[in-house]
Amino acid sequence: MAALRPLLATERLSRSFGGLKAVDNVDFCLAEGETRALIGPNGAGKTTLVSLICGRMPASTGRVLLEGRDISRLPAHKRVRQGIAYTFQITSIFANLSVLDNVALAAQRQFLDERSSSRGRVEQISLDALAQVGLAPYALQRAGSLSYGHQRLVEVAMGLALRPRLLILDEPTQGLSDGEIETFIALIRAVGEFTTVLLIEHNMDVVMALAERITVMDQGRVLAEGTRDEIRANPAVQRAYLGSVR
Amino acid sequence: MTPGTKALWVHLCLVVLLFALNFLLPEYHRGILSRVMVLSVFAMGYNLAFGYAGMLSLGHAMFFAAGLYGAGLTAYHLGWSVWPAFGAGFAAGTILAVIAGILALRTKGVAFMIVTLMFAQTFYLATLYFTTYTRGEEGLVLPQSARALSLFGISFSLTDPTVRYMLALVLLALVLFALLLLVRSSFGRALVAIRENEERMRMLGYDVFANKLSALIVSAAVCASAGAAYALLFGYAGSGFASIQYSILPLLWVLLGGAATTLGPIFGTLFMFYAVDITSSYTDAYMVVVGLALILLILYFPKGIAGAIRERWLPWLP
């Protein structure tokens, strides 16, 4: 793993809310191409950490580096353009637009800079992203009329249409049925082939199925980091998160 | 026909209808319609900011009045002819929008309403403070000489009702088609999406602030054009047009006609103008009647006239 160059790194990254240190001096490193899970009990600071990474929230102190370049001062939309895509924990799609238009909003952004007339290409990228998540047959339906599980997939397709280098998924399987989770695992496995994925997830089956490495957070700090087996065997993790050993 | 061409035809038909009405309507109604067309342009500008981009501004009177005074003051005091005076009005509104936008767009929601209202009130009070130049409430009446337009080597007088009507129609048609193009562009679709979910758009890589600022500037430029045209066509610039009433009116016109529809502002302005005109000829308490009509309309057509048409019959209407 150490041989791979890091795509993303944080250095002593912190964020406090009043007296509470939601993220406390976190040094976090993500290699290009890996699929990483970020786990921890509620309130451990997982969502805050990724919010600092993607710029939704400013850090109190510390730095965020993308391929060694300091992006700490970039606003969120510029970080997205550098390749960091974030999919929302609470489904956040445009209910009144068609599924295709939702994804096209993500795809068209990249062409606005080039000023090329590229409606065809935007549509192609959008359709590809929809095909990838298996929603191609629903392209022209109103997004709000889809089932919850499908809406979550629209969210993922919007992330994919950005053609990100780092895809951050915030609790993507929350509220999905078992069957939908199966499909989702297969999807993220395929996406992980060509993109770096950072996954916040509570469902340990999903984590164990997808993540090559796991980072465990507790009370704003990184408690442990390692392969699946290392994490399973780590006594501190068992105490903090897994409760009694399975 | 694709929805796009259908929409284009509807807009063309409306413009042709308005053109024909010039020859069919009696003088009195032709005069009203000229005014309504200019004020509809004001409403269309407001609609871009409020309807499409979701910025509920209570300060658009400032942009209309900036156009009005930019044209009126230069024509009255400096003797500028119609084109440069119009340009001055356009520029005044646009520049004010850049300044007001950069400051006001740091806020949103209620705070945005208050900040825009404050800007507009400051402008209104300024027009009263500089009474020496603006003549305050009494206003400036432009002399005949300031209202001679030369076009293709021919001189027109803006006091002529037909010239006035046709110029108002040209302005309306230009703005209507420009906005039609704009709201269907990727910029227009991004604005609607920002209105619906700002945070999501930011995380899709859109610079929300820059998009909203651009929308506000275009919106103000359109409103200022309407103001400048009003001063030159009707020969009057008074501070009443800068008062809060003229920030609320475009909001009403747009809500009545249908927010985020290209044709709604025209319907709304026309309806409101005639509602006041007709009822006030029967009773002094005409505002009661108009108020009642507004309540009924909002009850039964909450999305406005064009909004209801789009919802019930013509889903492709932009």
Strand content of chain A: 25-35%
Number of strands of chain B: 4
User: Strand count, sense and closure of the main sheet of chain B?
Assistant: 2 strands, antiparallel
Mean pLDDT of chain B: 92
Helix content of chain A: 25-40%
End-to-end Cα distance of chain B: 15 Å
Note the overall shape of chain B. Answer: globular
**Main β-sheet of chain A, in a few words?**
6 strands, mixed
Across the major sheet of chain A, the strand order is 6-7-8-3-9-10
Helix content of chain B: over 70%
Give the CA-based shape of chain A.
globular
First-residue to last-residue Cα separation of chain A: 28 Å
**Roughly what is the average pLDDT of chain A, rounded to an integer?**
88
Helix/strand-derived class of chain B?
mainly alpha
Overall description:
The complex is a heterodimer of chains A (246) and B (318). Chain A has helices at 46-54, 76-81, 99-112, 119-133, 148-161, 178-191, 204-210, 228-233, 235-242; strands at residues 6-17, 20-31, 35-39, 61-66, 69-70, 84-87, 166-170, 196-200, 213-218, 221-227. Chain A contains 9 helices and 10 strands. In chain A, helix 3 crosses helix 4 (119-133), helix 3 runs parallel beside helix 5 (148-161) and helix 4 crosses helix 5. With 246 residues, chain A is of the alpha/beta class. A 6-stranded mixed beta sheet of chain A has the order 6-7-8-3-9-10, with helices on both faces. A 4-stranded antiparallel beta sheet of chain A has the order 2-1-4-5, covered by helices on one side. With 318 residues, chain B is mainly α. Chain B has one domain (3-241). A two-stranded antiparallel sheet of chain B has the order 1-4. In chain B, strands 2-3 form a two-stranded antiparallel ribbon. Chain B is globular and about 55 Å long. The model of chain B has no long low-confidence stretch (mean pLDDT 92). Classes of the chains: A alpha/beta (246), B mainly alpha (318). Chain A binds chain B through residues 54, 56, 75-78, 80-81, 85-86, 88, 92-94, 96-97, 101, 105-106, 108-112, 158, 162, and chain B through 186, 189-190, 193, 196-197, 199-208.
